[in-house]
Predict the 3D structure of the following.
Amino acid sequence: MSLFTVSEARAVLRDLLPVLDRVVALRADAAELAAAVSPGGEPSGLGGLPEWKAAQAELDDLLTSVQQTGAELKGFAPLLVDFPSDLDGAPVLLCWLEGDTELSWYHRLDLGFAGRRRLA
């Protein structure tokens, strides 16, 4: 596992934001398409089974591209992305949550999301 400095994680996140925005849009489309193809589901203007499978495949590719940066995908709905780091000699995860405009939070490994604190 590689460690990110705060500035490195922020740079990677800037590059990932368009990917993460696409994940959010596709997640909604895939949910609607899944409902449409389920028994008794209402038809969707987005399509049917082929479109649902295509959305799933694209989501898989996008999520893989996030993980290939060294970031850790911790949540899907909402999206939660962690960047392993070290602050003042302590291992932490720099934490981005869907809706955040920048990387401003971290938490200790042993505390998880509940221990989230704002970066200085």
Remarks:
- The beta strands are 72-76, 79-87, 90-97, 105-108, 117-118.
- The radius of gyration is 17 Å.
- The longest strand covers residues 79-87.
